[in-house]
Amino acid sequence: MKPRKVEADFAYLADLVKPDTVAALFFPSGSESGVTIERMRLLGSKLGFAVVTAEGFDPEGAFAFFKAYRQLNRKGVDALYLPPLWGLDPEKIRQFYAMAERDSIATFSSEGSFHVSHGALAGGSGESPLVEAHYQAWKRCELLMVGFLPICRMYSQTVAA
To answer: What CA–CA distance (Å, rounded) separates 73 from 82?
Structure first.
């Protein structure tokens, strides 16, 4: 995630919705998870709202957004902050946002306009679709040619040192 991305998204969300409680269905890998959620809670506190979360996994151990949403105690949740909805096709994304709308929960996507066009209240992507497309293409080329993304290599070298 880009530096200051969550800060900018949360500030925008706080100004737009004025929430008391935001549910963050954000699932970074490895040791990032606890740190990321705690950072979100601290940011939320500074902006005047609590941050709660829930998890849900499919039988293969991959994160499952619908399961996590069902695990969430939605009573009192005013807004939902979402990372990229990996593994969901456009129809599932639309269904996910419709589910939150039925529960009167405002949804905010970290990804931007595509998600707004599929039901999110707002999105925090400052990138044009063309720039994002180039970035996604670059990531896939790196994975195919090298077998991993350079950032993963740098992270593993840092951890091993």
So the answer is: 16
Spatial distance between the Cα atoms of 138 and 2, rounded to a whole number of angstroms: 16
Q: Is 45 exposed, middle or buried (0-12, 13-18, 19+ CB in 10 A)?
A: exposed
Other Cβ atoms closer than 10 A to 109: 26
3-state secondary structure of 137: helix
DSSP E strands, 26-100: 50-52, 79-82
Distance CA 11, CA 104 (A): 21
Q: What is the pTM of this model?
A: 0.72
Q: What is the mean pLDDT of each run of 10 residues along the chain (161 residues)?
A: 79 92 81 79 96 82 81 87 85 92 92 84 70 65 66 36 36
Count of Cβ atoms closer than 10 Å to residue 155 Cβ:
13
Residues listed for the chain: 161
Is residue 116 a contact partner of residue 89, using CB atoms and an 8 Å limit?
no
**CA pair distance 55, 84, nearest whole angstrom:** 15
